[in-house]
Amino acid sequence: MRRTFSRAELESFRDAVVPDLLPTAPEHDLKLLFVGINPGLWTAATQTHFAHPGNRFYPALLRGGVITEPIDAAAGMTDAERDVLRERGIGITNLARRATAKASELSPAELKEGGAALTALVERLRPRVVAVAGITAYRTAFGLPKAVLGRQPTPLAGAELWVVPNPSGLNAHETVESLARAYVEVARAAGLSVVE
């Protein structure tokens, strides 16, 4: 059942942190690590990555066959839904840890710190593929102002590195279809089977 939050309730989650979604069992190999910019207030309220009702992340994964059952993240993910992602070898983290109403509230310094922290996380976890969802944040975090979407020429701490479109509803020129195509590409690069 979908939750609703008042503006005041959402504001109470400003600067909150959402834990990374990472494999917890040794048999769950981390194949694909998605990296958001930072948690939004709805994400912080539900403790679920990409949770805002207007976010197209999970619908795009479903449309692309990366997952086979819908996930209604707006209500907050169940442990079983989190386990589906973990068992598939999919993890989720963010460049910046603190929740804001808009990613534009983050400073360049926060994003650069996040890039360094992401590099350390990737060194530790060794995913096959890292997919950063957001070209502008990626450019700032890694000091690469001319970077473009797609596979990057240089790996990140040994992992194949991609930049994919951000699934936020604010990213109006992307659709569930276009996001699905991008997410299928990184899923295949990570060795995940995709249901056609």
From TrEMBL:
Gene3D superfamilies xrefs: Uracil-DNA glycosylase-like domain
Entry keyword annotation includes Transport: no
UniProt keyword Amino-acid biosynthesis present: no
EC number: 3.2.2.-
InterPro entries named among the record's database cross-references: MUG/TDG, Uracil-DNA_glycosylase-like, Uracil-DNA_glycosylase-like_sf
Keyword annotations of the record: DNA damage, DNA repair, Glycosidase, Hydrolase
GO molecular function, one term: hydrolase activity, acting on glycosyl bonds
CDD domains registered for this protein in UniProt: UDG-F2_TDG_MUG (cd10028)
Residue ranges occupied by any Uracil-DNA glycosylase-like domain in the UniProt entry: 23-184
Name this protein carries in UniProt: Mismatch-specific DNA-glycosylase
Lineage: Bacteria, Bacillati, Actinomycetota, Actinomycetes, Propionibacteriales
